[in-house]
Inverse folding.
DNA sequence: TCTGATGATGTCACTTTGACACAATCAACG
DNA sequence: CGTTGATTGTGTCAAAGTGACATCATCAGA
């Protein structure tokens, strides 16, 4: 017998989509990567990058593939699963399960629109228009996750280039949280957290006191800030 | 035209399962609700309660249904989505997506085994044997989520009966975290957090100083402990 | 009535935070 | 070449929170 056991026939088989909340920080603003629907439904409406999982594909692979295909963005920074939405009442085509992912990366310039999306670009979170499907809900969940994780983990370095200053890191916190932080207390906190920042050089060549350049560690999400950095 | 748009044919359609990490506290121990596989694969092996989502069913409804069918447990306490696993390399029957849920409830005695599970019972977390599928990984994620959430939310009351004492609440923290907490500092912390506990009565009828009975609030996960309770 | 058990309240040193001032250093400008 | 403005590192201080501990209050049962 070649197939001794099988999934019961009563089990529903659903198309599975991945949608990516890709965030970055630029110009003091928290930015969201948005695409535009090239096909029905919601044709022409802005949406999160994403698409259907293919046969034999894992979820994170599908998320990275859709991100690259639709926006040309290589999520080198950080990718984590966010939550799963659906399958009911979220797609006019019928029941669709959507596994949302959260991608954090340093700002690398304007993405190229490609694939089946007519355009893809970074948009300030405050200026995000109504999105297709339930992507507004997914985006809100992603931003809240990012905000919360900055408190108790070292994830903020995922937004930073390989080498960055304390001021750069503070700008990430200020953009994601939408608040102003005291530079001196912030520096005291992050430099006093063991295993968070590794000093690698001193930056000069611009006005002002020379700044220490730091490097994050390989897995910034593993850094535990205890006690956490607290938002005002 | 009755079907103007449809899910593309390249999209894979997957059977979707829900698996539930149901936790409670009894006798000073963190307890996990385990079922036993009645069918192949993994027949006879312990596993988490769960099963396949049916047509027209939402994910949380499926989780509650499987919990009731397999164990007779009514997850009145708290139910939240945990994470999604798969679809590859987790089920010998082929690709299966599993959406895991976390259920927290007060201890209500021995569950009745029913449905297609030959037995269901609360097992101390420390004594959990190897589980079927990837349920060991799922269980570990659920316990870690519960441990983390006790730090910064009021979720611990989900483990408690409608009325409870500070000592009861502290027993929850000690069981979930596996540590001993100072009773006086703990009481100072939780009673000093606004919106966490509502005193409702004074309990007498047993030796010792009369204890104040408290009631949790409707949505304990919404209570924010800032600064959080920290594990030693 | 005494005793042990249980829980509420209080004390104290130490740490961390929030809000400041100040010194150090460099590029750019005159 | 000195001055200026900008930027960053270090320091101070009061207030709040925490960990560790002692004491008191109250009740059931011996």
């Amino acid at each position: 017998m070649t197939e001794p056991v099988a999934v019961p026939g009563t089990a529903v088989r659903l198309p599975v989509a991945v949608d990516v909340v890709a965030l970055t920080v630029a110009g003091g603003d928290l930015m969201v990567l948005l695409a535009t629907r090239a096909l029905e439904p919601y044709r022409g409406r802005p949406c999160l990058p994403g698409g259907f999982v293919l046969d034999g594909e894992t979820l994170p692979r599908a998320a990275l593939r859709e991100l690259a295909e639709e926006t040309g963005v290589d999520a080198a920074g950080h990718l984590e699963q966010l939550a799963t939405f659906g399958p009911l009442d979220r797609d006019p085509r019928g029941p669709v399960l959507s596994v949302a992912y959260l991608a954090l990366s340093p700002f690398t310039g304007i993405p190229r629109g490609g694939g089946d999306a007519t355009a893809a670009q970074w948009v300030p979170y405050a200026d995000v228009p109504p999105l297709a499907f339930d992507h507004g809900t997914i985006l809100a969940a992603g931003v809240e996750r990012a905000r919360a994780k900055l408190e108790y983990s070292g994830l903020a370095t995922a937004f930073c280039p390989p080498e960055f200053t304390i001021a750069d890191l503070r700008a990430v916190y200020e953009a994601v949280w939408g608040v102003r932080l005291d530079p001196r207390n912030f520096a005291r906190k992050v430099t006093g957290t063991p295993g968070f920042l590794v000093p690698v050089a001193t930056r000069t060549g611009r006005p002002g006191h020379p700044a220490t350049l730091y490097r994050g560690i390989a897995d910034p999400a593993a850094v535990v800030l205890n006690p956490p950095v607290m938002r005002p």
